Amino acid sequence: MILLILSIGLLIAFLSPSLHRIAKDNLGLLLAIYPLSFLLFLLSRGSSATVETHTWIERFNINFSFQLNELGWLFGVLVSFFAIFIFVYASKYMSYYKGAGRFFLALCMFFTAMMGIVLSENLISLFLFWEMTSFSSFLLIGFFHEDESSRRSAMQSMVITVGGGLFFLLGVLLLGHVVGSYEIRDVIAQKDLLIGHSFTPYIVGLILMGAMTKSAQFPFHFWLPNAMAAPTPVSAFLHSATMVKAGVFLVMRMYPALGWNEIFTTVLLLSGAITMLLGAWRSVVRLELKAILANTTISALGIIMMFLGLGTAKAIAAAVVFLFAHAFYKATLFLVAGNVIKAKKDKNIGNLAGNFKDMPQTGLASWLGALSMAGMIPFLGFLGKELLYGSAFEAGSLIAYILLGATFISSAFFVVVALRFSWYLFKPGSQDTGHELNSKELPFGLTLSPLVFSIGGLTLGLIGSLAFVQDKIAAMAGTILPEAFEKVDLGLWHGINGALILSIITLIVGFLLFKNLNMRESKRPVVGSEKSYFAFLSNMNKLASFHYQQMQTGYLRNYLGVTLLFLVVMIGVAVYIVGQPAPLNEILTVPPEYPFYQQVIILSIPIAVGIIFFTNSRVKAIITLGIVGFSLALIFIYYGAPDVAITQLLVETLTVVFFVIILHKLPEFKTFAPKYGNVGYFVISLIFGLAMTYVMIQVMYFDIPDTLKGYFGEASYLEGKGKNIVNVILVDFRALDTMGEIAVLAIAATGVISMLRLKDHSELNKSSNKKVS
Amino acid sequence: MKTLIVNTAIKFLIPLFVLYSLYLLFRGHNEPGGGFIGGLIGALPFVMYAMVYGVDEARKTFPFNWPLFKSLGLSLAISAALLGLIFKGDLFAALWADFYLPIIGKPGTPILFDIGVYFVVVGVIVELSYNMINYED
Amino acid sequence: MKENLIIGALLSPFVAGIIGLLPNISVQWQKRVSLLGTISMMIFSSLLVIEVDKVGVLSFQAGGWEAPYGISIVADRLSALMVLVTSIIAFPALILGFESVHKDRKVAKFFPIFMFLILGISGSFLTGDVFNLFVWFEIMLISSFVLLVMGNSKKQVKGTIKYLAINVLSSTLFLVGIGVLYGIAGSVNMAHLALVLPEIEPKGLVALSAVFFFVAFGIKAAIFPVYFWLPSSYHTPSTAATTIIGALLTKVGIYTMLRFFSLMYYDQISWMQQIVFVIAAFTMISGGLGALAQTNVKKLFSFSIISQIGYMVMGVFIGTAAAFGAVIYFLVHNILVKGALFIITGIVGEHTRNFDLKKGGGIAKTYPLLAVFYLIVGLSLVGIPPLSGFWGKFGLLSAGIITEQYWIISIALAVSVLTILYFLKVWNEYFWKAPKVTKTKRPLPYKFVISGSAIVLSVILIAVFADPIINYCVQAGEDLFNKNLYIKSVLGDVEISI
Asked: How many domains, chain B?
């Protein structure tokens, strides 16, 4: 059923360019039915432990299997709820641009992929959807692809996430090798196999690479701010409930199997902490609306990862609640940013104070979202922060207090950002004088979704104390850390405790920072990982060109030389490793016995070759080449193969005839190689000749088993009905070979003739062009 | 190159060469020779004729469709293969008549095959050399 | 007589080629005959695959001379599949040629020679005889040479001379190898050799002969450091020729390597393994870097061929049944995907008369269909599931993990990053970038559309039917590993002690 829905979703995705022709600007509204039905399906099904399995590759034991456990189900509900309103928003938003069809293609695919990730039970099918999110977000980020920076950002996100995906895949493969199954429940059930296994550190590292690249964790954080090149609805979707949360989801999903591992938790803690501070700092020194938000996302992701790394039951529950809170306010604020940019055609926050009168609905949403972000009571954001602080207090260890400090700092920065998005941008009663507004207020299609998300954040905060909400959250946290989850306390009021006091201090510090921090841009990178990415790229390109120039010199003599040397080296290696067939001195003690005339023939060949090597005249070269050929023919005669000898003689004759025909038509003879450059090639030839001689004397030293010779000798007259064995072999025993060879002749003739007849192709083009003009 | 002796000799030599090449072709199954050797020798006089009199003259004197030779040869060879397949169930299986012909000897598909080889070789060499002689920069 | 399917698959291109060579046949008829030959070959080879899958191996002896005296023609699962894939890739390449081959090249018998090339390739896949293989190689070499040089521009001749010289050298080494092999084993029949070679003492002799075959096939397959001929010759000829040559020729080298080192030289793998892994690693990296440095699309994908060859060589020398199966799947995938890349970028290049990435751009806007095609095929190449490249990579990696060859599979994985980079480079420059000069959009000729759709469809289909295909390939790999089936089919019931 789930597979069916996902497949239909993909189908819808591919149909959307066609649907665009029918639905026009309402395409998004029409397509919103898809996430809506997915949501209804999930709600009607409820979570369950049943697994839906479809065989995919039987041989490799890989299935499409899905489940609706608490974690996946709740994530699924979140994602599809967000998708509905993102689709609605995008429907209006994209009507301002061309290419809505392909936009929704990618968006639908992205949504489907995200649902696939959260519902997958098999690691390989999870990987499939994982890569699908990378790819579809690549298309979305590169939507304005005629822009160079768009293309670069899209490429960056693809390289980082797909590259990370490769590591993830290797981790999955190793995991599957250890456990013997790719089903996550099997992995969890047999996690004992992993404990102490030598693969485990690699598995943990590789899977974390996947999660960290996807969730923009340090040092892979830099692709995310650049990803805002995408149209705003995409940014909102990517940053709130999807894409970046996929990495978090993966960590949560694998937690029962790998959470015990110290490398796993330590890496999460460390990189989470760095990411968090980095993002928080950068969010206040950016002026572009979307860049500010993107950096707070990085920070928030760091917080979630960090608390997952802390690993106590409370910390996990806190991470889960914070994740929800963040999703709601971040989607709200991104859409608000989109609206402001759309209405004012400006994206620098410094120029945009006081928009409340112009856009009251957007302003309201912004206020609600910002308050949640700041962690004001009674918003969900407050609950999230309370739990974070509370769990850190409860854990009580040194690390927990360090975390607490870090969380406090970034929360304070969050307050700054929140105030900028509420007080600064939308101070009630204020009027922006710097910009003209295109219309009085943005259309309903653009204000509905931010309002829904912001009110959602508020509502969840208010109903947090209801038992069923708490049960759901507890159940979800329970799938991450199975050890004893009864319920998560989501009450707004717990009396005055450390967490509450710290919350209040956070607000105060944040407010003070807001008042005192100048809004100015600082793009000086704190850490250079983006720089190293570009350095990697450019060095790669440099290396590539250097390597290309070294390899492809364009000179045939170099190529042949290397090829011959390669053979010699391989022969040497073979002899070195396997050993000589027979010791050389043993072979050489048996002196060869050749009669005098044979010695003459044999000697004449190298002499002739030597002449060819040094001659400057074609005629001399041809004649000496002829000597080699005729000498060979003589040797054939000596060994009793008259047919071969005759053929050799005739071919030599013919070669000379052809040369005579063509000789005076050839251009002048030129020496291309430098005079003394030949020495190297001479040495290579010599080494090659020695190696070949070595092989030949080795082979000759051993007796030839003459199965074939004997058989041909007997059978050629009796069965082949011919006395000339060579001919019987050619036309009967191995007629197929002969057939092939005459085909070669025919092809060669056709080819040579076409070469002779055709003029230079490029000249032909020129002449035909002339005719046209 | 155009001397009277060569001019005259070549005209006499052509039939001799061709006959000798055919002789080599057919005796090939028992003595040195065969389609390849026969073909090489059979092509030589035509090449020489063209070298002496020029290609156009050669084409006029021997109005054979030389490119057809290689197609013909390939077809003969493949027919020999298929006859074996059809009548004996094996590709290239030899079929032999049970009588002898003068010069040719015992007719059979291997001989047919060899004739195919002969034609391809003659056709290819003559065609090639004619094109080479005619080649201009 | 199921064996006649083999004959049918070989005769189809052969007869089409012979008819096409007739002196006065019109270009129109050359095209028709070639198309007919290709389709008929496709039918025969599909039936062959179905039959072979039932019985394991089909074989016959040319002339009825019993093995090892005559020439054995053998179709096992691997061979049959390769022939089928050859015919599948031949079809769109041919259609592409109908539209794009320059008129003069057609007159000069482009299509018949194309058929002979197909014949040579299929023959190489089907023969069970080492010397016969040499003959098929010759057909392949000479017809590819003719296709590469047709058109006769100076650039082409320059590149093709290198192609010819180095490949002739490869043939020579191959021939020397055969000589050595015959010298030590007295036979050229592969099945017979599979029985004889392991018995031969001293082992050093066998190793020496293996080296010749490895280098000869390595040159054909374009491994490091003997791949020079490939990038210097592949980008100059017409796209149809580049497609078929680029997609298939190097893979024949891999096929023969796989055949030789599974059937006859299996015990040589143990000493060669680590050395070949080093070579394979360099091949992957060097090809990937080479691709990254290019701005000509055809040249870029020529280097990409080399990079992928490294993966397959690695797979052959991992040397388990699973690895063989993975290599077979990778072969199928790579033939189709590389063919598809050449076809699609070829269509773009031929249609816009520009193969230069720097000058190109805007294709995603003007020809969105081609952009979609490129994405599908490119993602297959990168190895994004569920497309075919993923399963190839998956198979190879897991085979590597099981045999604990960690360093080489890590490199294989890292090189995938290079693949992503050059895949994206082409996409960004050729498809996404706004063109410097906007040209008027001309509609695509329908033959281009057919050709592109056919090849992309086949790329999609091998992903959709991944399960049965992988099943078949794994079985084929096991057959290669066990080799009894092959030997028995050729030699009859002989004593086999392996």
From this structure: 1
